[in-house]
Amino acid sequence: MLHESVQRNHDLIDHASRRSPDPRRILLAEDDREMRSLLASALRSEGYDVTNCRNGDQLVDHVVTPSSQVDFDLIISDVRMPAHSGLEILDAGRQIAGFPPMILITAFGSENIHAQARRLGAVAMFDKPFDVDDLVSKVAEILAPESLVH
């Protein structure tokens, strides 16, 4: 069902045409309120514009619906969330031209999950608990101007 939604809407979303150089926009999807707050705060303190999602449905609303008004430079998503998993979003995003890179975070980091994330194109994967500074450093590396493909 998620793939069908992406198929219907991918022509209506042109991420590249709305890309703004600064501040970098991050879509953060995490169902744990405390973790979401911690990560959003750390990213905002580095100057990023962060939009929060508390589940997979909200994440889908931001990236694959025609009403999506904000373009994102990066998505950080928990793997296991209500409605849709981060892996499902990553897989579906491969069908959208200009879909932003994704970092996945998980408390259930098996080798199988890591392999699937790599196969689907995740730019990084963090197992909880992780050092927030390491995540922020990885975000800076990914969003460095020379790293972004326009």
Taken in chain order, the helices and strands follow as: HEHEHEHEHEH
Strands in their spatial order, largest beta sheet: 2-1-3-4-5
* Uncertain stretches: 6-20
Question: Which fold name fills CATH's third level, the topology?
Answer: Rossmann fold
CATH class: Alpha Beta
Shape: globular
Sheet with the most strands, sense and barrel status: 5 strands, parallel
Task: Give me the count of strands.
Answer: 5
CATH superfamily: Response regulator
Total separate domains:
1
Mean pLDDT: 83
The level of helicity is 25-40%
Q: Evaluate the radius of gyration.
A: 14 Å
Beta content: 15-25%
Commentary on this structure:
The protein has 150 residues and is an alpha/beta fold. It has one domain: Rossmann fold, CATH 3.40.50. Helices cover 39% and strands 16% of the residues. The protein is built from six helices and five strands. Strands 2-1-3-4-5 form a five-stranded parallel beta sheet, with helices on both faces. Strand 4 (102-106), helix 5 (111-120) and strand 5 (124-127) form a beta-alpha-beta unit. It starts with a helix and ends in an 8-residue tail after the last helix.
